[in-house]
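Section handout 9: paired folding examples.
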Amino acid sequence: MNLKNYLRRELAWLRAKWLFMLCDLVVLAAAFMLAYLLRFDFDIPELRFPAIKLQLPYVLAIQLAALILTGVYTIIWRYIGIIELKAFVVAAFTSALPLLALRVLLPDSYLGWRVPFSVIVMTTFLGFGSVLGTRVLRRAWYERRFVRRNGRRLATVHRRPVLLIGAGRAGVMTAKEIINRGNMDIVIRGFVDDDPEKQGSAIHRIRVVGTIADLPRLVKELKIDHVIIAIAQATREQFQLILDTCEKIPVKARIIPGLYEILQEKVQISRIRDVQVEDLLGREPVNLNEEEMGRFLQGKSVMVTGAGGSIGSELSRQVARFRPSKLLLVERAEFALFNIHHELRSLFPNLNLVPLVADIGDERRMTNIFRNYRPQVVIHAAAHKHVPMMELNSVEAVKNNILGTRCVGELAGRYGAQAFVLISTDKAVRPTSVMGACKRVAELVIQNLNEKHRTRYVAVRFGNVIGSSGSVIPIFREQIRRGGPITVTHPDMTRYFMTIPEASQLVLQAGAMAEGGEIFVLDMGAPVRILDIARQTIMLSGLKPDEDIKIAFTGIRPGEKLFEELEVTGENMLKTRHPKIFIGNIHSLAAPRVDEALEWLEIYSHGEDGEQDLRRLLAELAAEHPTELSEPPISQVERLSYSTGA
């Protein structure tokens, strides 16, 4: 930003805030005079007035400067709260320190300029306390006016009594939002919380009236319409207990927005919704090192491949939060790219977004992108991921997941990217599918590239993400909508699950921690039976399993495992400074062997009859402890015929 634009912006800001500053100057001046009156018992000697006239202008100037420098005028006064109090405290001390220094350091010849110690202390407390007080009064007036206006509108509307389950942070935020809005058609009759220390206490004048075990009695006595679950860190067992209790009463249970939104303090009461099966999976909150991630992303040119996919789009949202200098959205599906670009442009209007329609396997196109934009961080999420589909299209899986990764990874090193993060999968552990084997070989590729370039190459493994395209929950909902049956491959099949925001945040955290060459493994928690998810999806739809909706078992599909593996608790896993991120002590291959294998994979993927050889080579590469690669089934002379299909 040039100096002219900067000055224009600052002047516009000052014009918008001049009335607030004028009011604060009046309050601060009054506090200064009151401090002198208190200092002399409301009888100021006449000889003091010349000194007061000298002192008042520079005292006000120092105090106003302190308010500006500490960001007080950037706070929206109607939302003033405990967090914003810090700015006023810092401003008070910032203004007092120079006044105390002048009092001590000025010589006697400047006696009139020296403000008495007692006046400095009193004017600081009185002045900044009054400035803060005016804002608190403004907020109280606004809320009272807002509630009255909306209360009159809802005077004839029946307000449904509800109970909030959870008197913690999420519950308090929910109650506060409902009270402040004043236009909700619900009224809170109390909190329900199992913490014995909270029983009988009141939050925002709303009492904690009992525990979850008391719900049947409370619903009957208070004539509760429905309960709202407001627990930010609820476990799977807690959710199941609450829902089982509500089902027995019976009373409808609803829930506030997801944990990620709670932790970001973005709870919107208008988005209270019915409980969904995703809520029952009970993931604990992710604690991020925001400072470390800021150093990793802020001010950098960041590329996300597969930016229109479920993981890639969430990674793009998370990256945008850390204000990169440029965010390159690489996606070959035009409509998916349009959607994420449109969304981010609305959420982050000042962010430099560059939507790029491109196939990661198109080396010429990707070379032009790297040459023109020089990304410093590359997050590689583009991949074919559906296991049964890739069993039928193994050549395309190799082209996209392996050769595409090599293309983007090689360009990242050639054009000086600082970091390259590959999104991998738990299916790369002892793979039984083409997709899993391709991801394992992609890990070998980035380990190989890490030895050749200064770029830090890392891979991050995790399991299924809730709500991603093609995942079981959306499929189950669609099957229920059609009247069933729900299809489950095997009654004992289990999978690891995590939310898309959680997975994306941990991927970026792992990337920030990386030194190069690591394969990070995310802690996915306990595996979940797919059959249990199917039953819960049916029940949360208001139906009964096996009665209203049948469950049919179809058998394990080609390439699928009965259970996935992450080995988080195994001896081969090394702990990191983040409790949910581990480093896998996973073998790599010598660079010549990887290069030779990639050459053969490319030949097989372009030949007409190379699929069998391609699968054999994938199996050898993805083996847990591979030996030397077997002799290729074709001679050097026959390479050309494979590559041309002759």
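Moving on to protein 2 of 2.
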Amino acid sequence: MQNSTVTDTLGILRACLALLPFMIAPGYVAGWAFDLFEFRRRRPILRLILAVPLSCTICPMLSYLLARFLQPGLWAFYSGVFGAAVLLLVQEARRARLQSVPQYIWIVFGLMALWGILAVGSLIDVQIADHLYPPIVARDHAVHTAITAAVSRHIPPSNPFFANAGAPLRYHYLWLLFCSLPMRVLRLSPRYVVYSGVVWCGLGLMCTIALGLKFLVQVETHIEKKTLLAVGLLCVTGLDILPNLYLGVAKGWWLADTEKWNEQIDSWAGSLLWVPHSVAALIACFVAFLLLRHQADAHRKWATAPVIVAGMAFASAAGMSVYVTFTFVVAIALWSLALITRKGWREVSMFAGAGAVALLWALPFLSSLRGPAAGAAFAEFALRPFPLGIIIARQVGIAIETQFALAVANALFLPINYALELGFFLAVGVLRLRQLMRGAIEVSANELAAWTLVMTSFLIGTFLRSSTTITNDLGWRCFLPAQLILLLWGATLVHEWWFHRSSVVPENAMSSNATQAAPRLWIRVAFAMLIILGTLGTAYQVFMLRMFPVLSDRGEISGLSWVDPDRNFGSRTYALRSAYEVLDTQLPSSAIVQSNPATVHPIQHMLYSGRDSAAATPAGDPPCGTAFGGGPGLCGLRQQKLARLFALPEGSDLDATCREYGIDVIVVEESDRVWQQPSSWVWTRSPSVANDYVRAFRCGATVAGIQY
């Protein structure tokens, strides 16, 4: 096997390059055709900045509809926009005068390259001799890889963890669908496609920040510097470093992800590395919100194109993250009520029109999600918990036994909870609110709209939670809109305090004479400390997400994670990947590959297989991934029958079971019970692939024209 670190790096870069025209061309052409945000009058750099977020808003749902109902139209559309984008860019290049490139452009390129290096380095497998270490975020990306492989084969896809069960996939997979488009014309690994989506989502977020500063915060001076500062603030998170150091130093318990000490509010690095599809949904919703706000504020008239594009964006967002989209739906409902009190009927009608377009546009996708699925409520009332505070309170002798006492304690701990999770950004929000109440900031429509997004995030995150899986995805993802607004405000604050000391006037001052006293030294020092601690927290998180498997496997640290504690994690993962790479050369992409449904290593199998399973259990989800579609009753019967193959030595019903469920290859590993029995079928049957940890056997169905 070639060095996996080098192979992964080149594979991700190749996938990123393959995605480049999909990420730029559609948004560029749409912006020019509909003159969105006065696209045709903008500087070339702003046009390119607009292109990536616009592509993220338009293409996911459009690609789904074309792939499902008009397959030739999919490639006709992209061929057309690729050609049109080339013509427009060539025309732009001819008009441009040869001049020196501004310094901030080089800084932008540097930041983009830095993010690319950070993202790729955080996602690749690290190979040390014959030991292999995937990152901690592979836990989620293993699921995304399996779904991407399924999506690239057929739309609408079936649940890849429950193959041949007629279980339509119930998941917000449109970001994965969009990123998988190059797979239809190029041979790309679904894992590399998923990882390239992480890289591009980070670039899209940077572009969205620039749009937010210009069109929502309405920055008029030093916008380049403030944009660069805002991008830099993506490295800042809350005060998670403090509880993590406490747990690690005092308790000897190191967390693989620094967010897991609490009901988390992810850092920007964590959100991008774990759930880029949620960040993509944020981009789509925020651009749609900005587009309608800008049309109402700058032009003060109805315009059909922005309404249609915003509706397409909301529809795409619904297919990328229902949690982020739900947050925006609530925020828009509250904003509409505020508009009604301000008699903003035109803007209300545009949001209503965009909502109608979004519903019509998304209806085919939403209807495909119907059917039985495991899981509990999408949203239910529950006060945001603060487990560390409860533990400390009990340790000092405060009795918290009843549910009522627990609720009261969590309510009292909310300020501390949010202070630790948000750190610098909570301080920015408090200061901004104070300025607003004192009249130092104009109560403009944009200011109220921004506060609506912030308060909606806090309301949902404080009083609602989701339980469709074991994690509270709604309570975690609903804070993305608030985090984006606080980031924009934070950038203007940092610029005013440290990079433009002569200016003490806020961006939206009531008048040119409304000055603000420079903050006291201790306030600036306190904010600087919050930035430093937040930056250290992000650095610590990125390091642990990447290096925890290596350090844990070598026994240098211990803590809760999905990494095997038996010191064989690296060698076992190397063997599993090696076996699947050989199988990949032997099997078609439609083959069904089955490992033990009760395996303790589901993440590695899903990460490297790239193929459906008859019964698999994604980490943290029900058996057969029935949270993604299908009934648990049928799954239980299937798992029971398959489990016997990995436990009983005779293997007489192996081929019959494979034919029953359409399985092409059975993968057995050394942790399976049947492996430990020298007389079992594992040792009497000829394997297709074998090493010290894995043996794979063809069975049952016809593979490549041969009956097994």
